[in-house]
TrEMBL record:
Residues 14-354 form the Adenosine deaminase domain. The gene is add. Keywords: Hydrolase, Metal-binding, Nucleotide metabolism, Zinc. Its cofactor is Zn(2+). Its EC number is 3.5.4.4. This is Adenosine deaminase. Zn(2+) binds at H19, H21, H208, D300. Catalyzes the hydrolytic deamination of adenosine and 2-deoxyadenosine. GO terms for cellular component: cytosol. It holds the Pfam family A_deaminase.
């Protein structure tokens, strides 16, 4: 008999995470301690529990300005090599404790140079932190493999530098290149030189697209910039017409995304908080899963949205009635879509993910 679906059994199941922001997943107590260490006194409260509530309240506020304010606090305390390494190590440990066996965690190096670090120092500190955290997690019986995605800010002009960093450090932990930030007014085609460089170097690209802006953002990300994956991609649903009888007709772009198996890095709770979806029940993940797009489930910002991979999976079970077969499907989708080598992806699927699901009775 299959194990019952509960928070604990879902936590014990192996999970794969492709879309998680380092500056969106700090422990509240760490934010306070790092702020004290550098004399940063702008936090709304220095009580960790109250601070966690403040971050979550900002995410729920409906105000984009207040939501973005939260990152001002986390980035502010991540400006030294010690802080960056600590945050990265704790990220790896927290994800492993949540049953994540493989994660790709992204951050924007250009946001962490306010106190004199250069881009190389920033990247090396984060990579060292991931290694240390993964080692500590393995020692507790929770092994995790962490890959790093380097993100350029789409409103800035340093994308080529960040792309070169992604290639420079790909043999020591960086697995790909990303751009993030406001979609409207800052199309990915502003950074074509960076994407062209990455492609020429046989490296991987994921692009935030189709979250706050519609189909043009997705089209540009894929057809102009060569995105291997779409960060969020929820607005692909705008190219799908659903008839009264429930049958769906895909437009040319949606059909292309599905037919070529372009992965969608969907972040259900965060998408509701940012207004990309009105509610979890109305989130496009339900339709896109039914139509068998390459859907993956992710956290986005664990601190701001008060979520984990376990809570995301559990919420989907409660909302859509998914079972173990669906959770394994999401997990294998994500592992297939990871930016590491084929042999390593296959080993994690065949030696870690499928055997554990078999133990759970599926």
């Amino acid at each position: 008999m299959p194990a019952p679906l509960s928070v604990q059994t879902i936590r014990d199941a192996p999970k794969v995470l492709l879309h998680d922001h380092l500056d969106g997943g700090l422990r509240p107590a760490t934010v306070v301690e790092l702020a004290d260490a550098i004399g940063y006194d702008a936090l709304p409260t220095r009580d960790p529990d109250e601070l966690a509530g403040w971050f979550l309240g900002a995410a729920h506020s409906g105000s984009l300005e207040r939501y973005l304010e939260t990152f001002g606090h986390t980035v502010a305390v991540m400006q030294t090599t010690e802080a960056l390494a600590r945050v990265a190590a704790e990220c790896a440990e927290d994800l492993a404790a949540d049953g994540v066996v493989y994660a790709e965690v992204r951050f924007a190096p250009e946001l962490h140079v306010e106190r004199g670090l250069d881009l190389d120092q920033v990247v090396m500190a984060v990579l060292e932190g991931f290694q240390a955290g993964a080692a500590r997690a393995a020692a507790t019986g929770r092994p995790i493999r962490v890959g790093c995605l380097l993100t350029a800010m789409r409103h800035a002009a340093r994308s080529r530098e960040i792309a070169e960093l992604a290639v420079k450090y790909r043999d020591v932990g960086v697995v790909g290149f990303d751009i993030a930030g406001a979609e409207k007014g800052f199309p990915p085609t502003r950074h074509l030189d960076a994407f062209e460089y990455v492609r020429q170097q046989n490296a991987h690209v994921t692009i935030h697209a189709g979250e706050a802006f519609g189909l043009p953002s997705i089209w540009e990300a894929i057809q102009w910039c060569g995105a291997d994956r779409l960060g969020h991609g929820v607005r692909i649903v705008d190219d799908i017409a659903v008839d009264a009888d429930g049958s769906a007709k895909l437009g040319l772009l949606a059909a292309y995304v599905r037919d070529t198996r372009i992965p969608l890095e969907m972040c259900p709770t965060s998408n509701v908080h940012t207004g990309a979806a009105r509610s979890l029940a109305e989130h496009p993940i339900g339709l896109l899963t039914k139509l068998r797009f390459r859907v993956t489930v992710n956290t986005d910002n664990r601190l701001m949205s008060g979520c984990s991979m376990t809570s995301e999976m559990a919420a989907l079970v409660d909302t859509f009635g998914y079972g173990w077969a669906d959770l394994q499907w999401f997990t294998v989708n994500a592992m297939k879509s990871a930016f590491i080598g084929f042999d390593e992806r296959l080993a994690l699927i065949n030696d870690v993910i499928k055997p554990r699901y078999a133990e759970l009775g599926f």
